[in-house]
Amino acid sequence: MILIRPPGVYSPQGDTELLAHCVRREELDGSSRVLDLCTGTGVVALVAARSGALVTAVDLSARAVAAAWCNTRLHRGRVRLRRGDLLGPVAGERFDLVTANPPYVPTTSGRAPSRRGAALAWDAGPDGRLLLDRICRTVPRALAVRGVLLVVQSALADVPATLAQLRAAGLSSSVVARRRQPFGPVMTQRAALFERLGLIGPGQRDEELVVVRGVREP
């Protein structure tokens, strides 16, 4: 897929592909309401829109929203775009499917990065869970009955914690897709940090990506 991606906007990678693959397996039609959080270039939103679903895409980055706007026009995707923090722009709405590819890369800082810059796309605190924890707490209440959450993350960011938090929020949850891949540039630069934190073994330079699926049961 040809995409417009200005500097500072997350480039679709293996995690994007894995999440998009899982979206294609969901049963969506023209009545389905879909929310794509941390949309970046809008790729996952476009995949959902091809089913005819009513798609909303949200990102905190103004550049990302602009890029997604260009890409939805380029590919004639019917996507409503909003800039804001997670569910903020869609407060009170309910969705049949929520997708998320949030920042999950551990870093030395315990604070979220500023609203600008490339670090916004990956920095996620010492354990990689600054956004993941918030998604697990807040998204379940935005799901319709039988609604589905699909979130992609690295195994370095504590997959069992994601599963446990979603179950505590009333969702049945499981890992539905896995992919192992070599570290990219950002992960490679932080490999020594990951070793010190005990997240990887000495010399390890690859990671497992997973998609967690949560379902709101009646």
Question: Please, could you describe this protein's structure?
Answer:
Strand 1, helix 2 (43-49) and strand 2 (54-59) form a beta-alpha-beta unit. The relative contact order is 0.16. The mean pLDDT is 93. A seven-stranded mixed beta sheet has the order 3-2-1-4-5-7-6. It has helices at 14-25, 43-49, 62-74, 130-138, 159-168, 185-189, 191-197; strands at residues 33-37, 54-59, 79-83, 95-100, 143-154, 171-182, 206-216. It is of the alpha/beta class and 218 residues long.
SSE inventory with pairings:
Blueprint: H1 14-25, E1 33-37, H2 43-49, E2 54-59, H3 62-74, E3 79-83, E4 95-100, H4 130-138, E5 143-154, H5 159-168, E6 171-182, H6 185-189, H7 191-197, E7 206-216
Parallel strand pairs: 1-2, 1-4, 2-3, 4-5
Antiparallel strand pairs: 5-7, 6-7
Series of secondary-structure elements, N-terminal to C-terminal: HEHEHEEHEHEHHE
Cross-sheet strand order for the largest sheet:
3-2-1-4-5-7-6
CATH class group: Alpha Beta
Looking at this structure, what is the CATH superfamily? Vaccinia Virus protein VP39
In one word, what is the shape?
globular
Q: Which consecutive residue ranges, at least 5 long each, have pLDDT under 50?
A: none
Biggest sheet layout: 7 strands, mixed
Radius of gyration: 16 Å
Number of distinct beta strands: 7
Report strand %. 25-35%
By CATH, the topology is Rossmann fold
Number of domains: 1
Number of helices: 7
CATH-level-2 architecture: 3-Layer(aba) Sandwich
